[in-house]
Amino acid sequence: MEKDSKSGCYQWQSVTRIIIGILVFGSIWGLLEATLGGFLNIIVFPNKGAIMGGIGMAIMGTALAIYRKPAILPGIGIVAASFKWLNSWLLFIPAGAIHIINPAMAIFLESLAFSLVVAFLMHQIDENVYVGAWAAFLAGLISVTAYGYFSVYVLHAPLFERMGVSSVPEFIASHGVIQAVFFGMLAPLGYLVGKKVAAISPVFLRRPLYYYATSAAIVCVCLAISAVAVRAGL
Length: 234
Fold this sequence. Notes:
This protein has helices spanning 2-42, 48-67, 73-82, 86-91, 98-118, 122-127, 129-153, 159-163, 168-205, 208-231.
């Protein structure tokens, strides 16, 4: 009975740790989308989507190295995408507006594609960093393809006018390859960072209150700064 109790406690702690990880890493990604992403959008920086998507890949790579569970990546994407609705809550923009739904869906599709690809390559990524780079590259192509068709045929978004292309295949060829390259470069860097963080994380886990308080603080700070950025017009 005592053994079963300890096993149940361990499983509960493991699930709690994963949920906290999803919230923390998703909030960090959401913060960067609201601040850096908003700034790049204002100055009309070229390949903004590829840059921000690559940063998201680096964040997911870090989380993947720490938790070793590809299934958490869509959760991280959902949390990050939810920050887009700060525009609705704070600026009273309709929640279904295209410029909210479109980037939110792009974030989710990136996380879903990366999760599906690395689910089959987890062990190989540990052995060869180049496998991680190719996995992220492939995830980039998959996500941009899904995003292109979803935007045009489901949301009827003016994707062609904004991107200066005339078809989804042209969008994939011109923007998707660039995005995939950014993904392939930044995801392995995030994975290497995550391995170093994983090596020191037991120190924090031995102090649960400190671990929970720090995680809650990170999420709250990310939300607060993102809210300020949105109100400032980023």
